[in-house]
Design goal:
Elements (H helix, E strand, L loop, with lengths): L2 H18 L5 H7 L6 E4 L2 E4 L7 H32 L1 H23 L2 E5 L15 H5 L6 E4 L5 E8 L5 H4 L7 H10 L13 E9 L6
Antiparallel strand pairs: 1-2, 2-4, 3-6, 4-5, 5-6
The structure holds heme C.
The site of heme C has 27 residues, from helix 3, helix 4, strand 3, helix 6 and strand 6.
């Protein structure tokens, strides 16, 4: 598979793009400022290169992000499996469309975060990526990304890989069931999210965790 290589190239591109995003003339101050040696400035946001560099508070925020992501994933896939088993994949598309936003709303409230899913090939236009993650989408980052946002919020961007069970609705068009194809055409006339294979990068969960209130 060329997957890994593409991903490495994408990651390298990502790094260089972030580098290029620095204002001109910044390089002279860069070596003279040891304050943040391993972070890269991207507008208002700062990319954190490794989870090892998180402060204790950011570590808590990171844990909240992962827990919220797990909850969203479990709830979405539980509902999806249930709907597929009951009425088949074509009907499950309607369920997905009507219930996915409400499921995300519940997770937002429960964990006090902002959360969603996005992709470089979107099915639903209701799933755009947050601004701070645009570069990661463009470069198809296939490893988790951490970003310090304004007001000390933490942004977490987590890759989603395609599993076999996802092929029913995201696989190559010529392998989709006829009723799935027509349900997609009806519900998502601008659908781009087909043509995937098992283990492909499908998209990402993104989570924004606010700075915890001071006790
Ligand atoms: C029954 C059909 C169906 C199956 C099976 C399915 N999806 Fe989807 N998927 C959808 C629909 C419909 C949407 C758009 C609605 C929404 O926001 O969830 C969607 C949206 C998404 C999105 C959000 C980005 C976008 O394109 O809008 C991701 C990421 C995603 N699916 C990944 C997966 C993964 C991973 C699996 C397997 C674990 C999977 N899907 C299985 C129908 C399906």
């Amino acid at each position: 598979m060329t997957n890994k290589r593409t991903a490495t190239v994408a990651l390298a591109m990502c790094m260089s793009l972030i580098g290029c995003a620095k204002p001109e003339g910044d390089s002279s101050t860069e070596t003279a400022s040891p304050a943040a040696p391993s972070t890269e400035d991207v507008g208002e946001t700062v990319v954190i290169e490794s989870a090892d560099q998180l402060t204790p508070v950011q570590r808590q925020q990171h844990e909240t992000a992962l827990a919220a992501k797990d909850a969203l994933m479990t709830k979405l896939s539980g509902r999806l499996v249930e709907a597929i088993q009951k009425d088949g994949p074509a009907a499950a598309i309607d369920v997905c469309k009507s219930e996915a936003p409400a499921i995300a709303e519940n997770v937002k409230r429960e964990f006090k975060v902002d959360i969603g899913r996005t992709s470089f090939k979107l099915r639903s236009s209701m799933n755009p990526s947050p601004d701070w993650a645009t570069e990661f989408v463009e470069t198809r980052a296939d490893t988790p990304q951490l970003v310090s946002l304004s007001d000390d919020a933490l942004g977490v961007f987590l890759p989603i890989r395609l599993q076999k069970k996802c092929l029913l609705c995201h696989g190559p068009v010529d392998q989709l069931a006829e009723d799935v194809k027509s349900a997609l055409k009806l519900q998502y006339p601008n659908d781009q999210a087909t043509g995937f294979h098992e283990d492909d990068l499908r998209g990402w969960f993104w989570v924004e965790v606010p700075h915890p209130p001071k006790q």
